[in-house]
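Before going further, learn to read the protein records used in this course. The integers have meaning only within a learned vocabulary of local backbone shapes. The record below shows the convention in full.
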Amino acid sequence: MRELDPLTIAEDWKKAGRNVALATVIETWGSAPRPVGSHLVIDDEGQFEGSVSGGCVEGAVITEALEVLDHGQARILEFGVADETAWRVGLSCGGRIRVYVERLS
């Protein structure tokens, strides 16, 4: 079975009347598990498709995406072993990533 592109899934969800946020990897340092341009789509029920970190920080990104859906304000998230979130969420590979989260209209 072929996996659908997260952007295609986002369009399908929007057509079905769901509110959708898009998380996109915009920058990486070190051995980040996903390349720049990787996507995670999230609906207002918390359902998601895609990946921005191979499972390392998806939970935190989903939580932030739900806030973006509630308030409409896009944000940039940064994760890695050298910041204050290292003990809550982090990249097991030791890299760092920046993720842009926006509401799709």
Summary: The two ends are 29 Å apart (CA to CA). The chain has two helices and five strands.
